[in-house]
């Protein structure tokens, strides 16, 4: 039960509420009083006011625009690079784009510090080595040579103590026979000059116990130079059987706007053959690299090496063109070694009789694949340009490297 003072306070509150209600009910409601602005806070100021205009803060608008510009430039570079690079088909390319494939029969030469038996190098003696080729078809041979020189290039007397060739096997495979090689400095065989302290030897697998081996043959040479014992390694990849052989028949034709060389090939093992030929102009300057990559059935076939028409009209080589240094192999998938070699054709193979540009086309190469790629790259390029234009319509778009700019 409430006390008398409490009851009095409650009654007073009820009376005040009633009076307030009567007062609010008289006439129209008055507008609420306007709030008075509070004074600015005092104390130290940590940040300056943010300007309404001026340089964007890091990670803001300028950074986003930079990213969009990069996307436009990247997609434009991709489109233009493919457009330019696909003017000619892959089987007919300018020689300048493939400098490492223009002279396949040049010796492979190296020079490095003398490697010592037991590890380490002899820093003041250098070994110069050379081998005539890396890939050997059945019946072919490779020549090796080596000599030692000091830091000034003067020869260091060298003595060959042992040279053995052996097929490299792995796992549980039986080791192959070892074949001794005779390195000589007598001016005979693979050694061009007698008594110059450069020693040479020849490896002909088909004439040794390695005739049936297919794979990498390693020749290990032990020698003494400058009073220290060193070693050198020569590796070749050997094919013991020929999957195909050349017939010796070659013809040419100007067809579909291009110049093609047809080489007869007697195919013994069917499959995908990859053949490469080098084409020089009439002055002997490398002009084009022609490639064949097709599946051939057993029998007498033709390998087509094409010099694309637009490549000829763009570069205007001195005619007639000459085909040289043709090599090829049968591709073997998912095995090691991955190829069976076709005998190489060294030097000039055929001199074209075509002496003018009659029938040669200047049209760019066209294919379903090229059209599809250009369409997709163009979509990417246009989408990037649209994003940049929508983000910053006040600024012009970066110019394209190959097509007129479009908004």
Protein model, in words:
The chain is built from 4 helices and 18 strands. With 407 residues, it is α+β, with helices and mostly antiparallel strands. The strands form 4 sheets. A 5-stranded antiparallel sheet has the order 1-15-14-17-18, with no helix packed on it. Strand 12 and strand 13 form a beta hairpin. Helix 2 packs antiparallel against helix 4 (368-391). It starts with a helix and ends in a 16-residue tail after the last helix.
Supply database-style keywords.
37% strand; alpha+beta; disordered N terminus; 407 residues; 5-stranded antiparallel beta sheet; globular
Short characterization:
It is built from 4 helices and 18 strands.
As a percent range, the share of strand residues is 35-45%
Poorly predicted residue ranges: 1-38, 43-48
Q: Kindly state the mean pLDDT as a whole number?
A: 88
Order of helices and strands: HHEEEEEEEEEEEEEEEEHEEH
The major beta sheet can be summarized as: 5 strands, antiparallel
What is the helix tally? Answer: 4
Q: Please give the alpha-carbon distance between the first and last residues.
A: 86 Å
Main sheet strand line-up: 1-15-14-17-18
- DSSP, total strands: 18
Shape: globular
Computed CA radius of gyration, to the nearest angstrom: 41 Å
Structural class: alpha+beta
List the helices and strands and how they pair.
Layout: H1 4-24, H2 61-85, E1 92-94, E2 108-115, E3 121-131, E4 135-136, E5 142-150, E6 155-156, E7 158-167, E8 178-180, E9 199-203, E10 215-225, E11 228-238, E12 244-255, E13 258-267, E14 271-280, E15 286-296, E16 299-307, H3 309-315, E17 322-331, E18 339-351, H4 368-391
Parallel strand pairs: 4-11
Antiparallel strand pairs: 1-15, 2-3, 3-5, 5-6, 5-9, 7-8, 7-10, 10-11, 12-13, 13-16, 14-15, 14-17, 17-18
Helix pairs in contact: 2-4
């Amino acid at each position: 039960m409430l006390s008398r003072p409490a009851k009095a306070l409650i009654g007073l509150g009820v009376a005040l509420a009633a009076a307030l209600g009567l007062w609010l009910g008289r006439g129209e409601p008055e507008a609420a009083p306007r709030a008075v602005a509070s004074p600015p806070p005092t104390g130290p100021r940590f940040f300056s006011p943010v300007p309404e205009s001026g340089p964007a803060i890091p990670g803001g608008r300028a950074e986003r625009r930079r990213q969009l510009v990069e996307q436009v430039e990247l997609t434009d570079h991709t489109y233009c690079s493919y457009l330019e690079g696909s003017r000619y088909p892959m089987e007919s390319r300018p020689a300048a784009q493939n400098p490492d494939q223009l002279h396949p029969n040049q010796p492979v030469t190296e020079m490095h510090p003398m490697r010592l038996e037991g590890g380490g190098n002899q820093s003041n003696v250098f070994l110069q080595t050379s081998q005539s080729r890396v890939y050997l078809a059945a019946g072919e041979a490779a020549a090796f040579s080596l000599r030692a020189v000091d830091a000034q290039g003067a020869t260091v007397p060298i003595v060959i103590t042992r040279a053995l060739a052996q097929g490299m096997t792995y796992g549980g495979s039986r080791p192959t026979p070892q074949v001794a090689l005779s390195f000589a400095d007598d001016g005979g065989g693979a050694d061009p000059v007698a008594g110059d302290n450069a020693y040479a030897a020849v490896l002909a697998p088909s004439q040794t116990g390695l005739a049936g081996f297919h794979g990498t043959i390693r020749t290990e040479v032990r020698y003494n130079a400058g009073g220290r014992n060193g070693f050198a390694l020569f590796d070749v990849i050997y094919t013991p059987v020929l999957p195909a052989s050349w017939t010796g028949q070659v013809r040419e034709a100007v067809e579909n706007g291009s110049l093609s060389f047809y080489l007869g090939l007697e195919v013994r093992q069917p499959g995908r053959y990859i053949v490469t030929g080098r084409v020089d102009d009439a002055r002997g300057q490398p002009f084009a690299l022609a490639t064949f990559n097709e599946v051939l059935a057993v029998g007498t076939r033709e390998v087509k090496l094409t010099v694309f028409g637009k490549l000829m009209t763009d570069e205007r080589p001195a005619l007639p063109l000459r085909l040289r240094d043709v090599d090829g192999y049968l591709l073997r998938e998912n095995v090691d070694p991955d190829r069976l070699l076709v005998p190489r054709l060294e030097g000039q193979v055929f001199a074209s009789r075509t002496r003018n540009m009659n029938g040669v086309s200047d049209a760019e190469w066209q294919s379903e694949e090229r059209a599809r790629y250009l369409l997709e790259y163009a979509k990417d390029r246009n989408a990037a340009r649209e994003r940049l234009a929508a983000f910053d319509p006040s600024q012009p778009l970066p110019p394209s490297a190959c097509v007129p700019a479009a908004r």
